[in-house]
Amino acid sequence: MPALLFVLYVVAEVSVLLLVGQAVGAVWTVLLLIAGSAIGLMLVGSQWRRVVEGLQRAAAGQRSPDGAIADGVLVAIGSVLMFVPGLVTSVLGLLLLVPPTRFLLRPAVVFIASRRFDKAVAAAREKSGVIDGEVVGQWYRDRPGSAQVAIQQGPHVIVDTDPGWGTATR
Description:
This protein is α+β, with helices and mostly antiparallel strands. The protein has helices at 2-24, 26-59, 65-83, 87-97, 99-128; strands spanning 135-140, 149-153, 156-160, 165-169.
């Protein structure tokens, strides 16, 4: 599958380069590639600064962390695309680096990430053997290393051998 995607990428880039080269000429096509890279390089720096500021505002509670993280993901993808050679990847990278495009794509990124996160959490729970329970009482022993504490709650007995705070679940 990755080999097929790479072949499709190469075919798309060569086709676009040939079409643009025939339309405007070889020199202008090369200048377009250079200009796109220069603009992209400037945008990468400025947009990363904006992403960091957005993450700082999210950490301070002034902005939604979902939007800040989604902006970071989109700028990261755009930055990578800017450094992959070709007109198609440069245009896609520039689009992801421009704030209005990110504003339009942000809800989709948040939706996709939340679905993948939910699936990952569900899979981790199944693998880890986590048992859901409810807290029925907490206690603290004054003397670390004191004897075991056993709690009878319904049909379950919970034995705690860890000194300090304890939690009983059922």
